[in-house]
User: What shape does this take?
Amino acid sequence: MSMPKLNDNQFLALALLEFNPFRIKSQLGDTLRSRIYNRGCKISGPGFYQLMAGLQKRGMVSSKFVRAPGTDRPVRMKQYRILAKGRKAVAEKLAFYAQFMENGKP
Assistant: This one.
């Protein structure tokens, strides 16, 4: 089994979209970035949006603009949703590491 082509930041973003405690189908960019930051990944705002744009270009996530919750202002925020290709990438990376832990080699 070869290593899936996801770097750590990409994997973390996808995994947080896939396995969230509230079983929410999509997350606002600010919320997702905060969850990534709280896990020790110090990514800047522009770096986060570049990361997500790359995942979107690869067909792993989708995004849309939504009105910011709890405000009457016309503030728009990006909302992200993991797609089947992203779920598959997460599952493959998890399987790779599970096999490594079980056998001591990939």
